[in-house]
Amino acid sequence: MSEPYRPRRSVLYMPGSNERALEKAKTLPVDGLILDLEDAVAPDAKPGARENVCAAAASSAYGQREVTIRVNAAGTPWHDADLEAACAAGPDGIVVPKVGSADEVRSLVAAMERHGAPDRTRLWAMVETPGAVLDARAIAAASDRLAVLVLGTNDLVKELRARFVAGRAPLLTSLSLVVLAAREAGVAVLDGVYNDVVDLEGFEAECRQGVDLGFDGKTLIHPGQVEPCNRAFAPSQAEVEDARGVVAAWAAARGRGVVTHDGRMVENLHVEVAQRVLAVDEAVRSRS
Ligand SMILES: CC(C)(COP(=O)(O)OP(=O)(O)OC[C@H]1O[C@@H](n2cnc3c(N)ncnc32)[C@H](O)[C@@H]1OP(=O)(O)O)[C@@H](O)C(=O)NCCC(=O)NCCSC(=O)C[C@H](O)C(=O)O
Ligand SMILES: [Mg+2]
């Protein structure tokens, strides 16, 4: 099911055990937050982190930011309690790591309904294993409650026994398969994180690659990554002006099937692309 567009350029993870980070997030210009109970939280700290993130998600203190809780994966000792508490807190989304199949999506949705999650609480499924990449098409289409696919590129690199290299050649097949699955199902898709929080040049290059591949946005781990990511995943001024030109040229053509703008062929499909650029630009501007 296709949803109205909402900006998800930048979605920041933060450990649920880090109260300072949960507080700081209220001031950051992110589109979304993932309050983490999984990898960023040590086993002993998980019960306390669960209380922190549920209180934060229920607080309405994050304004327009989309607030999600990442629970521990199905089959772990913390999953059931995390899911029940997250459903009661009613965040915008519940992020489930290491989702393995369409059946798992359906059973997660059934559990969310059993735990009384409000309708606004959507499921975000992480794709971070070879099986999930190969089943991404079925996972993406398994439930109307599923709104976002999130790449977990650290786990994926580990599972593939691949290497982190500039340009991500070992991951390109997987990244594109997940984008294809998301687009066919009409759900959003977020790129994985960039682990080096001081290498801004490398980070910006990876954002541009994510845009080129078709991602809606990128998951982040540090506040310093937010602004460059927002810039990369929003249309540039030149793209907005070009889109306005395409729409105007089409309107002036009064029903001709093909025209040119700036020397380039414009058909109806290019007008649809231009209209989407303008809609994204407007949605992004309404955030600032
Ligand atoms: C990576 C970090 C551990 C770095 O922490 P630190 O060295 O403390 O950073 P700074 O000193 O530069 O922090 C400056 C200020 O910013 C705040 N801060 C830092 N990170 C965050 C954050 N993520 N959210 C909000 N605020 C943050 C600090 O508190 C400082 O504030 P102040 O004192 O007021 O100046 C750290 O950034 C971090 O923990 N990042 C998140 C790590 C995480 O969540 N990892 C799990 C998800 S990644 C993943 O596994 C995805 C997937 O599953 C996969 O497989 O790929
Ligand atoms: Mg992971």
UniProtKB/TrEMBL annotation:
Pfam families found in the cross-reference section: HpcH_HpaI
InterPro entries: Aldolase/citrate-lyase_domain, Citrate_lyase_beta/mcl1/mcl2, Pyrv/PenolPyrv_kinase-like_dom, Pyrv_kinase-like_dom_sf
Binding residue positions for substrate: R70, E128
Signal peptide location: none
Gene3D superfamilies: Phosphoenolpyruvate-binding domains
Binding site for Mg(2+): E128, D155
GO BP terms: oxaloacetate metabolic process
Domain (HpcH/HpaI aldolase/citrate lyase): residue spans on this chain: 9-223
Cofactor: Mg(2+)
Keywords, comma-separated and alphabetical: Lyase, Magnesium, Metal-binding
PANTHER family found in the cross-reference section: CITRATE LYASE SUBUNIT BETA, LYASE BETA SUBUNIT, PUTATIVE (AFU_ORTHOLOGUE AFUA_4G13030)-RELATED
Protein name, UniProt field: Citrate lyase subunit beta/citryl-CoA lyase
Organism of this sequence: Phycicoccus duodecadis
